[in-house]
TrEMBL record:
The keyword tRNA processing does not apply. GO terms for molecular function: protease binding. GO terms for biological process: protein localization to plasma membrane; regulation of myoblast differentiation. Residues 44-226 form the Band domain. GO terms for cellular component: endosome; flotillin complex. Heterooligomeric complex. This is Flotillin. It is found in: Membrane; Endosome. SMART domains: PHB (SM00244). The gene is FLOT2. Residues 173-238 form a coiled coil. It comes from Oryzias sinensis. Belongs to the band 7/mec-2 family. Flotillin subfamily.
Amino acid sequence: GITLEIMTLQPKCEDVETAEGVAITVTGVAQVKVMTERELLGYACEQFLGKSVVEIKSVILQTLEGHLRAILGTLTVEQIYQDRDKFASLVREVAAPDVGRMGIEILSFTIKDVYDKVEYLSSLGKTQTAAVQRDADIGVAEAERDAGIREAECKKEMMDVKFVADTKMADSKRELEMQKASFNQEVNTKKAEAQLAYELQAAKEQQKIRLEEIEIEVVQRKKQITIEEKEIDRTEKELIATVKRPAEAEAYKMQQLAEGQKMKKVLTAQAEAEKIRCIGEAEATSIEAVGKAEAEKMRLKAEAYQQYGEAAKTALVLEALPKIAGKVAAPLSKTNEIVILSGDGSRVTGEINRLLAELPVSVNALTGVDLMKVRVLLVLMAS
């Protein structure tokens, strides 16, 4: 049940990445207790009623560790390591409102230990020590340099004539500078080696983290593929039920309709063909009857011509002559007058007589009828 005694908790956050990405482990000690104020005590009863002391400690511990982990991600290793009291105070200030709403008061919170697995803190201490040593060496060298310069100046003022001594002093100064440069180079080399070792270790840790992330992604992808396969099966069944079956029914319907239309067209075409055949037979019968009538007519004409002989032929020619004359004279019907140019009137008369004399010959050549014989026949018939 709920206890009013002080509870000691030891929050611990392992391998939490700081703002610079360095994984560190932080342990602490917290003293907490249930508030005795009536309202706050009611909060505690509401939150922890029916829970054992161990369960209450577990809830408070998880809350503190959550805030501790969140704050670690916003600070650098130097800030956490160099000012632990400030870091602990920050955790206490951030966590106090949350635990206060549970009726719990944080009496104290201190950082017990800070360490890492990549020896970053150890490297940080070595770097600071090297920096202090470097500054001390630089100070000594500068002091010696200043003393040498002053001594050289004094000797130069006192012994201007001693050129050899001045040369040796210049050599000493140059040697001093060379030693200083050599020392600085060695210090920078050590710093670079330490930085390179840290970066190499950090890269290895990042690689491990990335491999774990890839494994997680592979597992997630496999799960996603399984879900997608199930969704494909479900979609396929749904399509069969909602699309394929209705489509097959519609296709069967369209096939029956097409066969009906096809049968209709066949029957229509057969009826049309029968109609055309009947019309053709009727037209053929009509043409045959007309042809037979025409043939009978021609046969009767031939028999009549044969019976009457030359007289029938002559009668036909005489019947046709007016029509022939009409066709020949048709172009002359549009002529107002014909003028025959000749200086001799008797000659004109001769030309007309010649044309009239040649007319029977032309008719005989065209029709085979001799107009002279016809003339005689007509005279005889008249008498």
